[in-house]
Write a sequence for this structure.
């Protein structure tokens, strides 16, 4: 039985995803950069790695053997107008959001093709299509993820691999708090047609669907979990 691998599993969204995919009964490998204690509830292999460090990405990628499902939920969010961002913050977003996702997919695709079966779910963001002030770099990294994921689907669907994205909007999680400081609580809430925040469990439900056989004919798609972020805009 192949593994379920989840990066960023100790975040609020990552933890919700881990709880849903734990129901599959497969062995789990859970990545975190910090707060490994939050993952103690799982009978899983837990690996700490800082994806802003290339050597850590490569070390983690080398451990990805017999993977059935890969969920890339690790992300770095820094908010600020481009001239105000530190170069180190930009580098972290490019490394965690782009390089790590790219290299981990590269590591698992050959083995998935050999098995003629495999599922990759990459977390994008509503900012990939409509960016708030201060989100130019972060939104740009997520736009890459969506195009990259569609490319994987186009290249490897005939080998039995499915690659899709889930794009959260205003989800009540840790990363939202940074954006609230710069944008405002009411603005972020009311930009959704539902005029309320979503929960990490809302995101996890969509990820679980994409990891199930019920979504077997969905490939290269982006599922928006954003409360109607696009409606009327």
């Amino acid at each position: 039985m192949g593994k379920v691998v989840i990066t960023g599993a100790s975040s609020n969204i990552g933890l919700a995803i881990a709880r849903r995919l734990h129901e599959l009964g497969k062995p789990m490998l859970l990545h975190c950069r910090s707060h490994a204690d939050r993952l103690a509830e799982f009978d899983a292999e837990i690996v700490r790695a800082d994806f802003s460090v290339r050597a850590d990405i490569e070390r983690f990628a080398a451990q990805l053997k017999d993977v059935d499902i890969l969920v890339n939920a690790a992300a770095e969010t820094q908010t600020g107008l481009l001239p105000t961002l530190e170069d180190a913050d930009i580098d972290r977003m490019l490394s965690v959001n782009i390089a790590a996702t790219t290299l981990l997919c590269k590591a698992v695709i050959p083995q998935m093709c050999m098995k003629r079966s495999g599922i990759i779910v990459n977390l994008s963001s509503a900012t990939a299509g409509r960016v708030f002030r201060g989100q130019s770099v972060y939104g740009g990294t997520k736009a890459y993820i969506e195009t990259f994921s569609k490319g994987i689907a186009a290249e490897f669907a005939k080998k039995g691999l499915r690659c899709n994205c889930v794009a959260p909007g205003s989800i009540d999680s840790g990363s939202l708090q940074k954006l609230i400081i710069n944008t405002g609580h009411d603005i972020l809430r009311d930009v959704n047609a539902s005029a309320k925040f979503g929960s990490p469990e809302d995101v996890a439900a969509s990820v679980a669907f994409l990891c199930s056989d019920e979504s077997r004919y969905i490939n290269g798609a982006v599922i928006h979990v954003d409360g109607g972020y696009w409606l009327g805009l």
Q: What stands out?
A: The first helix runs from residue 12 to 22. The first strand starts at residue 3 and ends at 7. Strands lie at 3-7, 28-32, 45-48, 67-72, 118-123, 161-168, 222-225.
